[in-house]
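Write out the bound-state structure for EPZ.
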Amino acid sequence: MDKFVVRGGNPLVGTIRVSGAKNSALPCMAAAILTEDDVTLENVPQVQDIETERKLLASMGAEVELGYGRAQHRTTISCRTLSDPVAKYEIVKTMRASSLVLGPLIARCGMARVAMPGGCAIGGRPIDLHLKGLEKMGALITQEHGYLEARAERLHGAHIVFDKITVTGTEDLLMAAVLADGETIFENCAREPEVTDLATMLTGMGAKIEGAGTPTIRVQGVSRLHGVRHRINPDRIEAGTFLVAGAITGGDLIVSNCNPAHLGAILSKLQEAGARIDILNAETVRVRADGDLRATDISTQEYPGFPTDMQAQYMALATQSEGVSQVRENIFENRFMHVQELVRMGANIAVDGRTATVRGRTSLSAAAVMCSDLRASASLVLAALVADGESILDRVYHMDRGYERIEEKLRGVGAQIRRMGNVFASREEIVAVK
Ligand code: EPZ
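---
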């Protein structure tokens, strides 16, 4: 398993480029199921979850070309023939977002078999709200042998009020509704930019959608959708992660190819903490910090509130901020996996239920730490960038799921970070390799 070796102490200076949003690309790739025509997506991030989605679509009979480099991170998907509308457990167990194919498969094929996604490190991750909405649109859903089986001659419009705000639930049902018979009204929808990005793509395919990005979305079902070429939004969480990296290292970092309009809560918190933020243009943000960061509280909320996907990264910043920061995680039940690892590096953090109390500023010392999930891994990289000495981060495959070549991007702005593949070396051996 690959490891990262990170030597702390360098302020990050220069320009770092953000990739396309994994959490936009995943539903948009699933939306290709809704048409027999070719769909081309641009600005697709080169991350493991995208490869997993490619495998999933190909396993159902789709033709998926996925190219990076010269092809500018582009994928062309043809679902002309979907010979096997089944999302197999072997794939679903590695990526629970596979459940995003459920709605489009029922809408396109009238049936779907999808392995029930297990939970993950951060929580149980149920999809009951997806199923409740599909049943209200006329799907008959049974569960057996770990699989969901859904059937519907043709889904029909309905009035669906989500019991809880769910991002992929909103996306899954939106994709089911665009080919349904009649009008569907969704209330209490997720407002994340990834939902809006998907709605933009679906509209480009001929769907009739109003209200994406607001709590109420209206869909007029159509009989078929055509192909589209669509550019994926920049990844707001990757952008936020880099902004925190610039602030925590006391650097001067320009984050390019991002969308500042999606970063409101993150930028506001960084300014409150004492970082200097300049929005240079519609795609670029500059962050500067001189090391005197102030403690601030965060409470994760659905968009446009402070994102749960930035909670772990912000906690790393809080360890370097003067004073007591309260970090409250309202979305997931177990999203403090990074705390113990940060404590092993010297952080002063106490957890009580869904609230972590961080006392800063504490100097961090390098350690061998373990990555546990995508954003916890990012938090450990940020801590290692300011820790005294050389840290070794194990199981970085968690990061590879959602961050494209992060070690190369960070090295490009002065970080001392490198990937050690397939080594079972001890800390001493790795240091000797230097
Ligand atoms: C999406 O997950 C993102 N994943 C997550 O990003 C993100 O953390 C999350 O939204 C919240 O913003 C993708 O978009 C692929 P939810 P999702 O449904 O849709 C409960 C990352 O780091 N819930 O909005 O699965 C659920 O348990 C990942 O990139 C139900 O109870 O999250 C949670 O407590 C991690 N029943 C809350 O709602 C349901 O049917 C929000 O979950 C669905 C959700």
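---
The pocket of EPZ is lined by residues 23, 26, 97, 123, 125-130, 164, 166-169, 190, 194, 308-309, 331-332, 374-375, 402 (CB under 6 Å).
Residues 429-434 have pLDDT under 50 and may be disordered.
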